[in-house]
Design goal:
The strands form three sheets. A six-stranded parallel β-sheet has the order 1-12-7-4-2-3, sandwiched between helices. It has a four-stranded mixed β-sheet with strand order 8-5-6-9. The chain is built from six helices and twelve strands. It has two domains: 36 residues, no CATH class; 170 residues, NagB/RpiA/CoA transferase-like (Rossmann fold, 3-Layer(aba) Sandwich).
Length: 215
């Protein structure tokens, strides 16, 4: 056996010795499941008060709705107030698929393109600590919906608002369906201060964010 081959085989043997064993993987899983949280900020308000306060500070807007009809009315009212045409692209979630839209509004459940101006989505959860909403990608919720349209409307169930980011990961694990391919955390309209430290809205995503709080 020549020296080159001997060196290769020796490196393979050493690499195999470093491979984690089955019990090592179990130890990692157990660590993830039982790992204690680190220091977390505290506040005096209740979860919903904190969430809405942070939503306002992020320059997003919101209103409360209770029924499918109220969702429809809120979307139409919002679009008319911003002089948007009657075209809406939306996520294909079960909730949004059940909504009855008037004929004057053209609604398509599909991925968004750069030509779309307004989108309607359904959030997975809300985070009170930052006033953020959490979007999980999937067949019914393409990631493009979160970034391409200028006007972003999202339905969020009030009972899905949690205190902190860590609660979102627990919520995802409890579902038992595994992690989605992409998770986007949206905190108000997109913005940047890259140019002369002047805030510009709509830099990498929506210029306006409006939440429909479903009770």
């Amino acid at each position: 056996m020549n020296d080159a081959r001997q060196n290769i085989l020796e490196r393979i043997r050493k690499a195999n010795q470093l491979m984690p064993q089955a019990d090592s993987f179990e130890a990692v899983r157990a660590r993830i499941a039982r790992h204690a949280r680190g220091p977390q900020p505290q506040w005096q308000q209740d979860t919903m008060t904190r969430f809405l306060q942070k939503v306002e500070l992020s320059a997003a807007s919101y209103e409360r709705v209770k029924t499918h009809k109220e969702i429809t009315d809120a979307v139409i009212r919002y679009m008319e107030s911003h002089s948007l045409n009657g075209k809406l692209v939306c996520a294909g979630t079960e909730l949004l698929s059940r909504i009855q839209w008037p004929e004057k509004l053209s609604v398509e459940a599909r991925a968004a393109t750069t030509d779309d101006k307004v989108v309607l989505t359904e959030a997975f959860a809300g985070i009170a600590e930052t006033g953020s909403i959490v979007m999980c990608s999937g067949k019914e919720s393409p990631v493009s919906l979160n970034f391409l349209p200028d006007f972003f409307i999202s339905v969020i169930h009030l009972n899905t608002v949690v205190d902190r980011m860590e609660d979102v990961w627990e919520k995802l694990r409890e579902q038992g369906a595994g992690m989605p391919r992409a998770i986007n955390v949206i905190t108000g309209p997109s913005r940047t201060a890259d140019v002369e430290q002047i805030i510009q809205m709509g830099a990498h995503g929506p210029r306006q964010v409006h939440l429909l709080l479903l009770e």
